[in-house]
Design brief:
Keywords: Signal
Organism: Serratia rubidaea (Serratia marinorubra)
Protein name: DUF4377 domain-containing protein
Distance between the termini: 74 Å
Number of strands: 7
Pfam family, one: DUF4377
Largest sheet: 7 strands, mixed
Helix content: 10-25%
Signal peptide: 1-20
Shape: globular
């Protein structure tokens, strides 16, 4: 009886320690929403926590460019090209005050054109 109790306790403990095998893209897709972002061809100076370079993005082809202070997971920016991207956006919990509360994950690069 003692061995059975110990085995059950160990099994329960190991089950609680298992890791999920879902990728960041899959978890963002399940929890977030899809958006199309247009990315400008160059990085510009901006100030977040400290001076840095930011992408300029917009959500429609004719909208004004806005500074984008965070990264898009899975996206590698190349200066000199404009991009149209499909991204998943999900909310993050318990983020520091100086960090974005949104997580952006690249789903698909729809267009890449020379500027």
């Amino acid at each position: 009886m003692k061995n059975k109790s110990l085995a059950l306790l160990l099994l329960a403990g190991l089950t609680g320690c298992s890791q999920s095998s879902t990728s960041p893209e899959a978890s963002a897709s399940a929890a977030g929403k899809s958006e199309t972002l247009y990315v400008n061809s160059r990085l510009v100076d901006c100030v977040g926590v400290a001076p840095m370079k930011c992408m300029q993005v917009r959500q429609a082809p004719d909208a004004e460019w806005e500074l984008f202070y965070t990264q898009i997971e899975g996206f590698a920016f190349t200066p000199g090209y404009r991009y149209k991207l499909l991204v998943n956006v999900s909310e993050l919990e318990n983020v520091p005050a100086d960090a974005s509360s949104l997580r952006y994950v690249l789903v698909k690069q729809l267009e890449k054109t020379k500027a």
